Amino acid sequence: MTVTVRLFASYAEILGKSELELTIPDGSTVADVVRSVNGMPGGNSLPPSPLVAVNYSYASSAKPLANGDEIAIIPPVAGG
Amino acid sequence: MMHVSLVRVAIDIASLAATVAKDTNGATAVFVGTVRSSNEGRPVTGIEYSAYDEMAEREMVSILTEASQKFGIAEAVIEHRLGTLHVGDASIGVAVAHPHRGEAMDALRYIVDETKRRAPIWKLEHYTDGTREWVNAGGVLET
Q1: DSSP designation for B87
Q2: Do the chains contact at A78 and B120, CB–CB below 8 Å?
Q3: Inter-chain contact B120–A76, Cβ cutoff 8 Å?
Q4: What is the value of ipTM here, to two decimals?
Q5: Strand ranges across the sheet with B2-7
Q6: In chain B, which residues have their Cβ closer than 8 Å to the Cβ of A72?
Q7: Closest Cα in chain A, distance from residue B23 (Å)
Q8: Which of A52, B70, B92, B103 is at a distance of 20 to 30 A from B17, taking alpha carbons?
Q9: Which residue does chain A place closest to B62, by CA atoms?
Q10: Contact A69, A55 (CB under 8 A)
Q11: What sign has the CA pseudo-torsion A21, A53, B116, B30?
Q12: Considering chain B, what percentage of its residues have pLDDT values greater than 90?
């Protein structure tokens, strides 16, 4: 299955991109996607368990993913 | 009337307050967040705000729904500005109205605090010495 990964703020700067597509095995979880991103050039500068959202809602690392999901890796927020 | 928006123009506080006005409401509470001239001792020239727009809007809608359930408010708006802001510019405006002041002020605090804690919005601070830094507000979110 294919999922979209969105990166923001400091994480987008570190990875040099704000969006990528990943093809992952069926049954993959949020943790599997994070591990893939951590393995990319610069990805080891991201925390091993960052905040993640799936389809616009915060999600746990154990959450199973479905084809077409949008996974956002979210740096510490600082709005207001 | 509950409404959230991310804007890239100046926030008009008077019109935010007017949005929540209603004859049955005796109290309107308004919060305005502005860009400070220094942060942790470092002189600031401005802040670039960015967001995960789709999710930030959904999260702010959820916060207003929660505030409605907790405090019985029916009129509240959040407006958050994105883009480059200078010292003194308003980055966030929140207006809440209720028949009574206690609920209006409690709901206002809840909405502001939760927006800062949960909305996926980031700030890149620029300093007078030409350096820049992503601000880590230090909050811990559990999922």
Answers
A1: T
A2: no
A3: no
A4: 0.95
A5: B2-7, B75-81, B90-98, B27-34
A6: 52, 55, 120
A7: 30
A8: B70
A9: A57
A10: yes
A11: positive
A12: 93
What's the rounded Cα separation, in Å, for the pair B74 and B84?
32
Measure B34 CA to nearest chain A CA, in Å. Answer: 8
- Residue that has been written with the tokens 């509950």 in this structure: B2
Higher pLDDT, B108 or B136: B108
User: Which residues on adjacent β-strands are paired with residue A19?
Assistant: A6
Q: How far, in Å, CA of B108 to CA of A23, rounded?
A: 44
Q: Which residue from B minimizes the CA distance to A30?
A: B143
Is-contact A38 A57, C-beta < 8 A?
no
**Cβ neighbours of B56 in A, within 8 Å:** 79
Asked if B112 contacts B133 with a C-beta cutoff of 8 angstroms, the reply is no
Secondary structure (3-state) at B110: helix
- Nearest CA to A75 among B84, B135, B82? B135
What are the chain B neighbours of A6 within 8 Å (beta carbons)? 52
The single residue listed with the structure tokens 């359930």 is B69
The whole-model pTM stands at 0.94
* Residue A43 φ then ψ, to 5°: -65, -20
Residue A3 bridge partners (DSSP): A22
